[in-house]
Amino acid sequence: MKLLVDWIVRLFGGCVTKKLIVIGTSWCSGCSALKTQLVAKSIEFEYIDADNEEGMEFCHKYGVKSLPTSFIIDMVEDEIVKVVLGNKVMEIMEGLK
pTM score, two decimals? Predict the structure, then answer.
């Protein structure tokens, strides 16, 4: 998990206690719908485009096989708290607010 945290800190330039990362593409309707829902609920997230080089590297490294895929990261404990497929992350994030 240390590699994932290092990658996120490098990519986003900082560290927070919990971070939601959504992996998707512009052509994925489920990805667009999830982004819209997260914005509408004012849930902060980082978006990784699986179509660009960094996104492809991330997907390969962490076994992302379907979109959207979301990672909830605990940056203090240096671990992935949960990996969620599809829009089920909405229920989880609303519970963490």
Answer: 0.76
92 vs 72: CA distance, rounded Å: 9
Give the tokens for residue 58. 């991330």
- Confidence class for position 74, pLDDT limits 50, 70, 90: confident
Over residues 17-26, the pLDDT tens digits come to: 778 999 999 9
DSSP labels, 18-55: EEEEEEE-TT-HHHHHHHHHHHHTT---EEEETTSHHH
Q: How many Cβ atoms sit within 10 Å of the Cβ of residue 75?
A: 15
SS3 12: helix
How many Å apart are CA 80 and CA 52, to the nearest integer?
A: 23
Answer yes or no: are the C-beta atoms of 49 and 24 closer than 8 Å: yes
